Amino acid sequence: MLYSMTGFGKAVTEFPGKKITVEIKSLNSKQIDIAARVPSSLRAQELEMRNHIAALLERGKVDMTVYVENVAGDASVKLNAAALKAYKDDVEATAKAIGIPVPQDWYNVLMRFPDVMKSETPAEADDKEIEGVLDALRRAAVQLMDYRRAEGEKLEVFFKERIERLRELLALVPQFEEERVAKIRLRMEEGLAKIHGVDYDKSRLEQELFFYIEKLDVNEEKQRLAQHLTYFMETMEGPKGQGKKLGFISQEMGREINTLGSKSNHAAMQKLVVQMKDVLEQIKEQVLNVM
């Protein structure tokens, strides 16, 4: 089964006086990359939260945000009167020293200074708050994985359609091979016929022609490409976390398709190869989203 690396999860935990909200969203990335925003009262639990997310999500660029709201009715943040008074005294002294008027709107000026607000929230969260945060985190992570699985199912449909299209295009290659050999022989014979006054050994020509055509044989490339297509489908049915493996398989598919193109020496076959490359690029783009 496939899981996408794109997802979103949100969970809320409420208990008397507090409301905790955890939001987690993820995008594609080669490794696990977690950006966390948590209140200062929960800094001690940040590592535990990161480890839980990393173990469950495995890969992706993850943005985790934890909000803790005080809903008890008493304000958890208040104006810092001491700091405001100190700033006001300093502004008045500076204005007098350089001969400029003091501000007319003191609040507008003073509120721009740092530390004019002070939090009444405890420096560290209590056990009840910590358990509430971890519970919300677990539920948000599960919701995100459910989202990833739903997106993964869409990717499975997408890949199956593209792999089937590549099989259809590959099945069209044999019809051009006999014609391709005949045209190669004809071009060589026409080229020799243009060289007047020169006799050549026809049996040697047949031998050289055989070696030349053998170098342009594409049976191995067709077989390997067919095997890669089957392996891609089998890998999709495996456990989660197959994104890197599917990426490697698609690279091998690209090598076989490129070799088919370089050996084709036939306009119709080259058109098939171009179509194969187009389908493969679509696969490669979406493989980047697979976990």
Automatic annotation (TrEMBL):
Endoribonuclease YicC-like C-terminal domain: residues covered: 176-290
Domain Endoribonuclease YicC-like N-terminal, residue spans: 3-156
InterPro entries named among the record's database cross-references: YicC-like_C, YicC-like_N, YicC/YloC-like
Requisite cofactors: a divalent metal cation
One Pfam family recorded for the sequence: YicC-like_C
Entry keyword set: Endonuclease, Hydrolase, Nuclease
Gene Ontology MF annotations: hydrolase activity; RNA endonuclease activity
Superkingdom of the source species: Bacteria
Family label: Belongs to the YicC/YloC family.
NCBIfam families (alphabetical): YicC/YloC family endoribonuclease
The protein, known as: YicC family protein
Species in which this protein is naturally found: Duncaniella dubosii
